C-alpha cells in the first residue's frame, strides 16, 4: 500500500516537473500551488534539486563540446573592433564636416519653413477676414444708421446681419458679442422710435390749437364760398371740402436715405395729383415719426403694443384737451382756443385714420368723439350759463356752428351740438331779455312823459319813420304841433324791432325751417312783451313818486303801442316769410301786455287820486262842538275840488271810460271818506252846527259833480256818489224821523240810502252832546221834549236794527 502511494507521488512529481519545464513562467503559479497543497513538499524539493543537477551536467557537456568555436568567435570579434573604431572615426569626421557644411542650409530651411507657415496663416487669415468683413461692414452701417436716426433701415440691416452674415462667422468671439448685442440694439431702436413718437405726441398737442384754427378758417372760407358764389346745398359742398381739408395736413416724410423714404410704404395717399399746398399748413406737424415707429414695431412683432400705447396716450391728450379752462366763459378767445384744440385733435386723428392701416379705426375714433361730444356739451352748458352778455352768446353760437361745420366736414356727427344750440338759444333769449330790461328801464326813466313836440316837417317825418302813426287831423295842424305820445313810444317800438333782429341773428345757420325761426322769434318776442316790457312798465307805474300826469301819458302811450302790434306782426312776417295764417303760428301777446299795463296805470291813477284825496282830508279840521252856523264850505275841501278840476282837465286825451271811471272812483272815495270822517269813533260828540258846516262841504262836492268835470256822464249820475251822505244829512238837518221810520224798507222811501245803524251812531253822538252841554236843559220843557224824542227815535232805530238782523 505504501509502495503504491509512493509510486503515485513520484509520478505526480514527475508530471509537475515536466509542466514546470514546458510551461511559461507566467503560468507556473498553479503548478507550484499544487506542490504546496500536497504533503510531499520535501520529496518534491529533492527531486527538483536532482533534476537541476541533471540539467547542469547537460549544460556543461554542451559548453565543453562548443568551447573552441566560442574562442574563435571571440578572436574574430576583437579584430572587428579595431576596424569598427577606424570606421567610427571616419564617420565622425565625415559627420563633423557634413554638420559644418549643412548648418547654413538648415538655417535657410528653417527660414523657409517659417515663411511657408506665415504664408499659410496669412492665407487663412485673408479667407477668414473675407468672411468677417461683410459682417463688420453691416455692423458699421447699422451704427451709422442708428446715429443718423434712420431706425427703420437700421432694423432692416439688423435683420440681414442676424440671419445672413452672423451665422457664417458664428464661432468668432466678436460675433458672439454682436449676437448678444442684437436684442439690446432692437430695444434701443424701439426706445428711440418711442422717444420720437413721444416727441410727436407732444408736438401735436402743442400744435392742435394751430391745426384747429387752420381747419376752422378753411371751413369758414368754404362756407362763405358756398353762400356767396356756388349757391349750392350745404351738404354737397361739405363732401367736396373733405378732400381739400385732407390736403392741408398730408405731409411728406423726409429722410436722409432712399431706404428711409420707404418707411411710409404703409401710407395710403389718395388723390396725390390733387394735393395743393396751403402755405405753412404742411409744416405744422411732421407725421413721419408715427409712421416710422409704427413700421418698426410692426417689424418687431409689437404692433399691438404700439397701437395700444398710441391710443392710450391720445385718450389722455383728449381728456386734457376736453378740460376747459376755468375762465373760458369770460372771453370769446377762451372758447375759440378750446374749440381749436378739439378740432386740431380730431383732424390729426382723422388724418392718421386715412393714412395708416389699423393704427386707429373708425370705432376708436367714434368712441373718442362720443366722449368729446358729451364733455364738450357739458362744458358749454356750464360755462355758457355764466355768460350774461348776449353779444358774447351770439358770437359763441357762431363759433359753435363753425366748430360743428368743421367737424362735420371730417365725417363726425354733430346733431347733438345743434340740439345744444337750441338750449343756448333759450339762454340767449334770457340774456337778451335782461339786456332789453335795462334798455327799457333807461328809456322809461329818461322819458319826460309829455307829448313829442315837432316844429318842422322834417322832425314830423322822423317821428313817423320811427313809429307807425297815422292821424289826418294832426297832419292838417300847422307847426308847431305835438304827437299825443311821448318819446318812449317810438324808442320802445324800435327796441322791440331790434330785439327781433337779435333773435333772428341767432337762428342763422342752425338749419332751422322758416316756420321754426318764426316760432322762435314770436315766442321770444312774447316773452319780451309779457315779461320784460310789462315788468318795466309796471315798475314805472308803481313808483312812489309817479305823478298823475305821467300815469295819464303812460295810458296814452300804451294805447298807441297796442295799436302798433299789428305792424310788429307784419315785420316778423316779412323777415321770416311765414304768413300769420300758417297753422301753429304763434300770435304776439303785445295787445294783452299793453292792456295790462294800461289797466295797471288806470288802477294807479285811481289809487293816486284817492291818496291825494286822503291827503287833503287830513287837513280837515272840523269843530264838532261848534254852535255857529257856517256860510261857506271848508277851505281844505275847496282846495280839494280845485285839484280835482285841474286833474280831470288833464284827462282830455284819455279814453272816455278811463276818465269817467277815474272821476267816479274819486267821487266815491271822497264820499266814503267824508262818511268815515263823520262816523269815526274819535268824534264822540257833534252839534247841529257842525253838521250844518259838514252839509255845506257835501253841497260843494255835489256842485262839483253837477258841473261835469269829465264829459260823458248822464245827468246826476256822478251825484249818486254822494247820495248816502245827502240823505243822511237831510234826515238829521230836517229832523224828519217820522218819515224815515214810517217809510223804512219801502222802495219809494225818501231816505232809502240811510242805514239805521249809521243813523243810530250819529244820533248817539248828538244825544251825548245834548246831555253834556245842556246841563240845565232838563229844566226847560222844549229841551226836555227834544231829549225824549231823541231817546224815542234811538229806541225805534234799535228796534229796526234788531228786526232787520232777526
From TrEMBL:
Sequence ranges assigned to domain Exocyst complex subunit EXOC6/Sec15 C-terminal in this UniProt record: 416-765
GO cellular component assignments: exocyst; plasma membrane
Coiled coil region boundaries: 77-104
Transmembrane residue ranges: none
Residue ranges constituting the Exocyst complex component EXOC6/Sec15 N-terminal domain according to the UniProt record: 47-216
GO process annotations (BP): Golgi to plasma membrane transport; intracellular protein transport; vesicle tethering involved in exocytosis
Annotated region (Disordered), positions in chain: 252-275
Keywords carried by this UniProt record: Coiled coil, Exocytosis, Transport
One Pfam family from the record: EXOC6_Sec15_N
InterPro entries reported in the protein's UniProt record: EXOC6/Sec15, EXOC6/Sec15_C, EXOC6/Sec15_C_dom1, EXOC6_Sec15_N, EXOC6PINT-1/Sec15/Tip20_C_dom2
Family: Belongs to the SEC15 family.
Stated role: Component of the exocyst complex involved in the docking of exocytic vesicles with fusion sites on the plasma membrane.
Protein name: Exocyst complex component
Source organism of this protein record: Ovis ammon polii
Organismal lineage: Eukaryota, Metazoa, Chordata, Craniata, Vertebrata
Amino acid at each position: 500500500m505504501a509502495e503504491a502511494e509512493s509510486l503515485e507521488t513520484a509520478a505526480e512529481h514527475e508530471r509537475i516537473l515536466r509542466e514546470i519545464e514546458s510551461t511559461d513562467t507566467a503560468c507556473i503559479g498553479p503548478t507550484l500551488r499544487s506542490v504546496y497543497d500536497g504533503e510531499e513538499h520535501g520529496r518534491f524539493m529533492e527531486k527538483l534539486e536532482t533534476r537541476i543537477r541533471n540539467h547542469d551536467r547537460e549544460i556543461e557537456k554542451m559548453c565543453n563540446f562548443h568551447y573552441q568555436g566560442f574562442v574563435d568567435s571571440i578572436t574574430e570579434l576583437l579584430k572587428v573592433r579595431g576596424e569598427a573604431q577606424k570606421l567610427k572615426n571616419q564617420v565622425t569626421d565625415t559627420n563633423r564636416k557634413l554638420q559644418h557644411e549643412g548648418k547654413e542650409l538648415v538655417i535657410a530651411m528653417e527660414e523657409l519653413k517659417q515663411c511657408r507657415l506665415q504664408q499659410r496663416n496669412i492665407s487663412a487669415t485673408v479667407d477668414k477676414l473675407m468672411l468677417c468683413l461683410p459682417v463688420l461692414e453691416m455692423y458699421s452701417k447699422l451704427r451709422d444708421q442708428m446715429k443718423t436716426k434712420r431706425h427703420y433701415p437700421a432694423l432692416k440691416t439688423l435683420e440681414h446681419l442676424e440671419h445672413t452674415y452672423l451665422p457664417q462667422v458664428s464661432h468668432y468671439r466678436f460675433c458672439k458679442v454682436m449676437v448678444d448685442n442684437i436684442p439690446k440694439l432692437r430695444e434701443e431702436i424701439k426706445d428711440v422710435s418711442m422717444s420720437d413718437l413721444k416727441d410727436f405726441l407732444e408736438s401735436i398737442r402743442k400744435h392742435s390749437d394751430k391745426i384747429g384754427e387752420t381747419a376752422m378758417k378753411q371751413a369758414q372760407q368754404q362756407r362763405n364760398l358756398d353762400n356767396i358764389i356756388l349757391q349750392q346745398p350745404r351738404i354737397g359742398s361739405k363732401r367736396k371740402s373733405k378732400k381739400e381739408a385732407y390736403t392741408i395736413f398730408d405731409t411728406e416724410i423726409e429722410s436722409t436715405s432712399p431706404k428711409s423714404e420707404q418707411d411710409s410704404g404703409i401710407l395710403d395717399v389718395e388723390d396725390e395729383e390733387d394735393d395743393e399746398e396751403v402755405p405753412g399748413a404742411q409744416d405744422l406737424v411732421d407725421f413721419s415719426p408715427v409712421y416710422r415707429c409704427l413700421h418698426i414695431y410692426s417689424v418687431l412683432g409689437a404692433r399691438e403694443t404700439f397701437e395700444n400705447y398710441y391710443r392710450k396716450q391720445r385718450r389722455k391728450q383728449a381728456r386734457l384737451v376736453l378740460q376747459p379752462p376755468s375762465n373760458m366763459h369770460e372771453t370769446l378767445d377762451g372758447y375759440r382756443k378750446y374749440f381749436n384744440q378739439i378740432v386740431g385733435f380730431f383732424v390729426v386723428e382723422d388724418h392718421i385714420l386715412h393714412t395708416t392701416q389699423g393704427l386707429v379705426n373708425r370705432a376708436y375714433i367714434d368712441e373718442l368723439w362720443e366722449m368729446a361730444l358729451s364733455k364738450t356739451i357739458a362744458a358749454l352748458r356750464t360755462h355758457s350759463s355764466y355768460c350774461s352778455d348776449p353779444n358774447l352768446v351770439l358770437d359763441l353760437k357762431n363759433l359753435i356752428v363753425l366748430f360743428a361745420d368743421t367737424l362735420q366736414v371730417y365725417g363726425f356727427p354733430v346733431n347733438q351740438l345743434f340740439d345744444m344750440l337750441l338750449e343756448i338759444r333759450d339762454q340767449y333769449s334770457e340774456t337778451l331779455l335782461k339786456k332789453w330790461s335795462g334798455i327799457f328801464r333807461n328809456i322809461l326813466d329818461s322819458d319826460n312823459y309829455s307829448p313829442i313836440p315837432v316844429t318842422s316837417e322834417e322832425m314830423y317825418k322822423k317821428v313817423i319813420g320811427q313809429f307807425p302813426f297815422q292821424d289826418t287831423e294832426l297832419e292838417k295842424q300847422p307847426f308847431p304841433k305835438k304827437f299825443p305820445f311821448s318819446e318812449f313810444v317810438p324808442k320802445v317800438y324800435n327796441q322791440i324791432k331790434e330785439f327781433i333782429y337779435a333773435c333772428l341773428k341767432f337762428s342763422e345757420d342752425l338749419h332751422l325751417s322758416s316756420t321754426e325761426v318764426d316760432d322762435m322769434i314770436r315766442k321770444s318776442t312774447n316773452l319780451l312783451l309779457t315779461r320784460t316790457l310789462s315788468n318795466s312798465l309796471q315798475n314805472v307805474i308803481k313808483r312812489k313818486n309817479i305823478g298823475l300826469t305821467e300815469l295819464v301819458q303812460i295810458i296814452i302811450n300804451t294805447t298807441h303801442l297796442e295799436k302798433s302790434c299789428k305792424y310788429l306782426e307784419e315785420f316778423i312776417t316779412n323777415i321770416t316769410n311765414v304768413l300769420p295764417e300758417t297753422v301753429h303760428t304763434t300770435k304776439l301777446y303785445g295787445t294783452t301786455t299793453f292792456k295790462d299795463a294800461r289797466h295797471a296805470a288806470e288802477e294807479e291813477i285811481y289809487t293816486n287820486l284817492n291818496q291825494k284825496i286822503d291827503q287833503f282830508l287830513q287837513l280837515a279840521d272840523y269843530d264838532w262842538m261848534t254852535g255857529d252856523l257856517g256860510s261857506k264850505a271848508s277851505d281844505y275841501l275847496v282846495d280839494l275840488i280845485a285839484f280835482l278840476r285841474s286833474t280831470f282837465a288833464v284827462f282830455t286825451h284819455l279814453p272816455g271810460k278811463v276818465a269817467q271811471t277815474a272821476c267816479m272812483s274819486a267821487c266815491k272815495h271822497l264820499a266814503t271818506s267824508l262818511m268815515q270822517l263823520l262816523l269815526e269813533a274819535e268824534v264822540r260828540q257833534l252839534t247841529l252846527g257842525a253838521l250844518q258846516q259838514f252839509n255845506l262841504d257835501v253841497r260843494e262836492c255835489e256842485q262839483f259833480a253837477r258841473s261835469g268835470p269829465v264829459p260823458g256822464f248822464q245827468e246826476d249820475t256822478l251825484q249818486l256818489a254822494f247820495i248816502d251822505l245827502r240823505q243822511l244829512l237831510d234826515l238829521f238837518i230836517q229832523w224828519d224821523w217820522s218819515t224815515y221810520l214810517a217809510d223804512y224798507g219801502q222802495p219809494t222811501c225818501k231816505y232809502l240810502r240811510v242805514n239805521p245803524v249809521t243813523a243810530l251812531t250819529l244820533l248817539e253822538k248828538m244825544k251825548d252832546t245834548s246831555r253834556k252841554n245842556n246841563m240845565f236843559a232838563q229844566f226847560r220843557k222844549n229841551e226836555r221834549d227834544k231829549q225824549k224824542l231823541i231817546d224815542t227815535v234811538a229806541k225805534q232805530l234799535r228796534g229796526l236794527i234788531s228786526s232787520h238782523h232777526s
